[in-house]
Design brief:
Layout lengths: L38 H49 L7 E10 L5 E3 L3 E4 L11 E5 L5 E6 L3 E4 L2 E12 L4 E6 L5 E4 H6 L2 E5 L2
Parallel strand pairs: 1-10
Antiparallel strand pairs: 1-7, 2-3, 3-6, 4-5, 4-8, 6-7, 8-9
């Protein structure tokens, strides 16, 4: 019979057949194995991936920097506004308070228990809660309060008062208890307080 024996390639020293004889192995003509990319294509893909990562990082950085800039600008604006409000006179002259008392010196004009007292007869309007008003130079009532409980002081019946929130800025003020007649004071005098009014003396 004819000899049909096919000569097998000689294995290498490791016992494997030469790579050139394996299916899909790169031939001596430089052809790639099926299912693999050429070396140059792999390198190009790696470079493109790295470029995309760098571009994404730059985009994120560009987004953060404007946000930080806007935040810093807003903070600076708020600080500037606070300094402006502190430094600029907004036209509010402010307010102040004054204190004082009215003394009823007519012993027949009040009743007492030895400690507390209140007006009677023609002075019966002098008692706790009676209104005290302050008017400015134009005659407008700018502040008001009321008398405290009457107390016996020596031979008199004294009613203290405190008037709050008097607007500053008027050259003269008039202060009056009930309808007992107003007295004129300067702002400086009202600020000192201890305004004393006497009736029936």
């Amino acid at each position: 019979m004819p000899d049909h024996t096919v000569a097998s390639p000689s294995p290498d020293s490791s016992g494997n057949s030469p790579a050139s004889e394996l299916p899909g192995a790169e031939s001596s003509a430089g052809q790639s194995m099926p299912g693999t990319l050429p070396t140059s294509a792999t390198t190009s893909s790696t470079v493109q991936s790295a470029s995309r990562r760098i571009l994404a990082t730059r985009i994120r950085t560009l987004r953060v920097v404007p946000a930080l800039a806007v935040g810093a600008a807003a903070g600076a604006a708020l600080v500037g506004l606070a300094w402006t409000l502190t430094a600029v006179d907004l036209g509010n002259p402010g307010t102040f308070s004054t204190t004082g008392g009215i003394f009823l010196a007519d012993s027949d004009g009040f009743v007492s228990d030895g400690k507390k007292c209140m007006g009677k007869g023609g002075y019966e309007d002098l008692r706790a809660g009676t209104e005290v008003t302050v008017t400015d130079a134009s005659g407008s009532v700018v502040a008001a309060d009321s008398l405290a409980l009457g107390k016996v002081v020596g031979e008199t019946c004294m009613f203290k008062f405190t008037v709050h929130d008097i607007p500053a800025g008027s050259k003269l003020f008039r202060i009056e208890v009930s309808h007992r007649g107003a007295i004129t004071k300067t702002e400086a005098e009202l600020r000192l307080g201890e305004i004393a009014l006497t009736l029936g003396g």
